[in-house]
Amino acid sequence: NYQHSNTDSRSIDGRIGFNYDFNEYHSIGVRYDLSNALHTDMFTAFDSEIQADGLPYDILYSTIAADAKSQPEHQLNIYYAGQIGKGELTWDADYYSNTYTQYTINMENSQDHEDRTVTSDNRVENQLTATKASYTHPLWGGSFSVGGEYTYTNRHDDYVNQEGYVPTTYTRIREQNLAGYVQYSRPLPFGQANIGVRYEHVDFDYFEDGRFIPEQSRVYDNFFPNASLNAQLGKVQLQVSYAAKTQRPNYSQLRNNITYANRFTWQTGNPLLKPSITHDVTAVGVWRFLQAMVSYKMVQDYILYWGTQVENQSATTLINYVNHDRLPSLTVMLAASPTIGIWNLNVSAIMMKQWFSLDAAGQKRTYNNPLFIGSLNNTFTLPAGFLLTADFSYQSCGQVQNITLKRPQYTLNIGLRKSFLNDALSIEARANDLLLGCKQEALLYMESSQMKDLSWSDTRSFSLTVRYKFNAAKSKYKGTGAGQDAINRM
């Protein structure tokens, strides 16, 4: 496959709101965000050379044009923050909605077989309401917190293919998430200890063509404990922590509709996906300008990018997602940030290693090779208010999940900034990816297929920014929002 894609989009965003302090103990506020995609066009040339049983079979030349129409996206937040006795109470409520429709036409021309024209209309509607509250009170020389959160989401995802090459689907996902937590923290002679637990009840309902589908609906009840210990030993700061948390699949991963790339490659989601649960043990140490971190994670029901054969069409690969039972990994980081005269240096080195194997493409495959990531960020404070930055990053070959990264990636960015009028006015010129090193080469094995991917984006760029700040002041708005994880999944 040879694919070249271009996207042209323009959008406008706005925010209006207020906050009011009755006194030093009570505050309220309202904030409304409005955004709208004014124009989104996507054009893709997708050409494929196909062999069957080692012999040439066909060459496909596809041109795919997509036009997305969006209604304005709305998000409203209301909050209250106040002191009741010796305790502090906070409350947030949010509403969110957006609707968009993508129209796609795929002109697929075959050299040796029939041509196809494949059209699709994909309309997605999202709605969310959420609220959360927390109360913190001094207790036994420490601080005790209790809180809860409720999120309701409703998503319609309708996909119509008039020619019938892939199924037409009308799906709806309705999810209710009720959560509560308790947390206690207490100072110690040498630092501070924290311990807590969060409980989540999730009711996930799946509908297809207006019918409730019990086998694709789920109810989850989980407890997620956490604990940490901070210590100060002379000039050394230490922290050891454990936390369990969940990552729920985003809604595109749960979809049931099938996107048509060509007659041999389709893509879809998986309504049967389960959330992933991560157990994370981390230790961090800081001494002067040096930092070190070690983190061990165990992810249960890891969500894996996968591909299967289409039933009764063995030559067609259906790209989708599946849960894998477990994925353990270790991350080690060393970092330093010294300042030497006019030079401020931030350097870091990271090693990421996993222990992972699975059956793919006819054999058992192991993915244990580590990945190394490094960065070297330099800032020079020059005379006359000039600031020079030179940042370099590097990522080695290695393995992540069931993907083998076969090409190292590196980036060099340089910037020069000059400020005027006590930093009210600034001018900055930046050059990004000067070495054009952000090319990716990856090898991915799936159920019965192999995908080799070489790709890069237009990351080499130049920018000139002129900024003037009028009456710059820090916002006193205390709302933190509710249901943000669910909004991100949409």
What does this structure look like?
The structure is a single chain. Strand 4 and strand 5 form a beta hairpin. The protein has a 24-stranded mixed β-sheet that branches. The chain has a four-stranded antiparallel β-sheet with strand order 24-25-28-29, with no helix packed on it. The mean pLDDT is 94. Helices cover 2% and strands 74% of the residues. It is mainly beta. It has two helices and 30 strands.
Describe the structure concisely for a colleague.
The chain is mainly β and 490 residues long. It has helices at residues 251-254, 484-489, and strands spanning 2-21, 26-52, 55-70, 73-84, 87-110, 116-139, 142-160, 169-188, 191-208, 211-212, 218-233, 236-247, 259-262, 265-267, 276-287, 290-310, 313-336, 339-340, 343-354, 357-360, 363-366, 371-381, 386-395, 398-400, 403-405, 409-420, 425-432, 439-445, 450-456, 461-468.
